């Protein structure tokens, strides 16, 4: 029997997941989970790099993001969901990697620069600057072959690949160099039409939103400012609603574009149509979510079992790492 290749992916628990997360990475996780041996990390330690003063919400956010995964279609019987902080070997491996990863490399990471600006971090902490090294340890301790991520995470995966090559050259070739898999929509624009969808920018549609919340958010989404009347000729390329139709209503996109450009449909009806498509996607998630919300102990059991399984794999990898580094002193 051929051994399945392995996936490692996950998120920092800093709030609910939104449609940007779904199309950027989560949809791929759901699609590939039967084909790959999938490990999904809830990176609670990395969440503290920007939320160290708000740790009172961390426990809530961990269970919230686990419920988001399950609602989206992650199956706990085939995918392993686990909590980062409960795998001490990850932190050990992070320290070893930090010995040959320079500060200069981390400072020039474009994602670090962008996130530092977003969070107003003019003076970066050691933990924030170094979290890509921690992420490399997350990936490589599970010897992941593939990492489904959003577009903004590509620099981190490239650093992980460099770290693996360097480690294997310095010591022994015991680590796997991961490949990156970006979703069909690498970057989903936010409701304001300015930036990517983000909770912190208040421009997101969350997977946990009710049908009415989705309707209200779509209603307030930015459209073509030149269209005053229904019959005005539209410019869909500047419309956020059209951008969402391109992603979530692909079967009708040519008709949507033509009707807009020729003034056959108004923005109100176009938003109604989009709302229907989004709620069609989200309704099965709402049903699964409600089932898990009614069984909070089940979510806890899933996380405990997943963390136990992940810990066993991490221990095995660290035996290889310590042997390669000649620091298995009593063996």
UniProtKB/TrEMBL annotation:
GO molecular function: ATP binding; tryptophan-tRNA ligase activity
E.C. numbers: 6.1.1.2
Keyword Metal-binding: no
The protein's name: Tryptophan--tRNA ligase
Organism: Syntrophomonas wolfei subsp. wolfei (strain DSM 2245B / Goettingen)
Reaction catalysed by this enzyme: tRNA(Trp) + L-tryptophan + ATP = L-tryptophyl-tRNA(Trp) + AMP + diphosphate + H(+)
InterPro entries per UniProt: aa-tRNA-synth_I_CS, aa-tRNA-synth_Ic, Rossmann-like_a/b/a_fold, Trp-tRNA-ligase, Trp-tRNA_synthetase
GO cellular component terms listed in the entry, alphabetical order: cytosol
Similarity comment text for this entry: Belongs to the class-I aminoacyl-tRNA synthetase family.
């Amino acid at each position: 029997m051929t051994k399945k290749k392995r996936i490692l992916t996950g998120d920092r628990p800093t709030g609910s997941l939104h449609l940007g997360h779904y199309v950027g990475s989560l949809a791929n996780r759901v699609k590939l989970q039967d084909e790959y041996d999938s490990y999904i990390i809830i990176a609670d330690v990395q969440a503290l790099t920007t939320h160290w003063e708000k740790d009172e919400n961390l426990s809530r956010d961990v269970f919230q993001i686990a419920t988001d995964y399950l609602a989206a279609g992650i199956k706990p019987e085939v995918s392993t969901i686990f909590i980062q902080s409960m795998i001490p070997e990850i932190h050990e491996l992070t320290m070893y990697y930090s010995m040959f990863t320079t500060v200069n490399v981390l400072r020039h990471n474009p994602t670090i620069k962008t996130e530092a600006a977003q969070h107003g971090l003019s003076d970066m902490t050691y933990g924030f600057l170094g979290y890509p090294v921690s992420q490399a340890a997350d990936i490589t301790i599970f010897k992941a072959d593939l990492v489904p991520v959003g577009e903004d995470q590509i620099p981190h995966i490239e650093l992980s690949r460099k770290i693996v090559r360097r480690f294997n050259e310095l010591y022994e070739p015991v680590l796997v160099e991961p490949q990156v898999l970006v979703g069909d929509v690498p970057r989903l624009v936010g409701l304001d039409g300015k930036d990517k969808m983000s909770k912190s920018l208040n421009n997101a549609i969350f997977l946990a939103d009710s049908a009415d919340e989705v309707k209200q958010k779509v209603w307030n989404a930015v459209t073509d400012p030149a269209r005053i009347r229904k019959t005005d000729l539209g410019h869909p390329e500047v419309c956020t609603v059209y951008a969402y139709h391109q992603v979530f209503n692909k079967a009708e996109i040519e008709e949507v574009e033509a009707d807009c450009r020729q003034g056959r449909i108004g923005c109100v009806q176009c938003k109604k149509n989009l709302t229907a498509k989004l709620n069609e996607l989200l309704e099965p998630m709402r049903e699964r979510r409600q089932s898990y919300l009614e069984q909070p102990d089940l979510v806890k059991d899933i996380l405990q079992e997943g963390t136990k399984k992940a810990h066993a794999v991490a221990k095995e990898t660290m035996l290889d790492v310590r042997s390669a580094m000649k620091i298995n002193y009593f063996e």
